[in-house]
Structure formats: C-alpha cells, structure tokens
Specification:
By secondary structure, this protein is an alpha+beta fold. Helix content is 35%, strand content 17%.
Length: 99
C-alpha cells in the first residue's frame, strides 16, 4: 500500500537510526521492483542484511524521498529508475553488497 512522503521519510529514517544511523553507510534508491534491486542487483542478504523499502504514491514522490536522503549524505544517485519506480529502498552497505 502506498504511503505519503512524510510517512516514508519518517519510517526509513527511524529504521536507519535504530540500526546505526550514519547515513554515509547507507545506500538509498528507487525501483519498480525493490526486492529484485536489493537482493539481485545490490546483493543484499535477504535474511541477515539490513534493508527496508516502502511504496510511495507516485514515482515523483519516490524521487523526492530519494533526493531527501541523498542530500543528507546517503549513498546512491538520482536519475535512475523509470516512471514505474514507486518504491524507495535503503540498505546498509557492506563488503558483500554492490552499489
């Protein structure tokens, strides 16, 4: 279910803070299929990795949320995804993950 911009920002921020909140250790992105991006493309461990994703109301809102975290020091880059990229995801970068 889609959530508002402010709710998603709050939930992701709380998740990061509760798990060691230095944003420079986290990658934030958008995707149409966040599970595929996290587990296949970024090699995040599904069971033991530290990850979260939320579905936004639109791809525009997802991009705004992504930009919010990038401007505050998260890893990643804007400009990716497509019109279908409505999910915002974040994961802690480790030696096993791929950015």
């Amino acid at each position: 279910m889609a959530k508002s911009k402010s709710v998603i920002i709050e939930e992701i921020q709380r998740y990061i803070t509760n798990r060691g909140g230095d944003l420079r250790e986290w990658y934030v992105g958008i995707a149409a299929n966040p599970r595929e991006r996290l587990f296949d493309d970024h090699s995040v461990n599904k069971q033991n990795g530290t990850w979260i994703f939320r579905t936004a109301e639109s791809s525009t809102v997802a991009r705004e949320i992504e930009q919010y975290f990038l401007e505050r020091g998260a890893r990643g880059g804007s400009g990716g995804g497509s019109i279908n990229s409505m999910s915002v995801y974040a994961y802690r970068v480790t030696a096993q993950t791929r950015e």
